[in-house]
Write a structure and sequence with these properties.
By secondary structure, this protein is an alpha+beta fold. Helices cover 23% and strands 48% of the residues.
Length: 91
């Protein structure tokens, strides 16, 4: 019985390690800038460059300064910011 308890514990530990190893770890970044209509959709014009926006429709925010939180990926088209959340910045 004691060996069975150890075996169940080891199997449980291995399962947790495997699941944690498989889960993607993506840190969220925040970028502040102004939403603009670009040639291929909406972009966030920030101090450090332009981000192509994906994930949410922010067309109501064109011309406004916002803080966007999401994940950033580089592509052939440029930096893509997949929006998780956003808030309008009032100065």
């Amino acid at each position: 019985m004691r060996n069975m308890t150890k075996l169940i514990g080891i199997i449980g530990l291995i399962s947790v390690v495997c699941l944690v190893g498989i889960a993607p770890v993506m840190a969220a970044d925040s970028v502040t800038g102004t939403i603009q209509q670009g040639d291929n959709g909406l972009v966030l014009q920030a101090d450090d460059g332009e981000y192509i926006l994906a994930g949410q429709d922010l067309s109501d925010m064109v011309g406004k300064k916002i803080k966007v939180t999401g994940t950033i990926a580089d592509s052939d088209a440029g930096k893509t910011l997949t929006v998780m959340s956003f808030e309008e910045v009032t100065e």
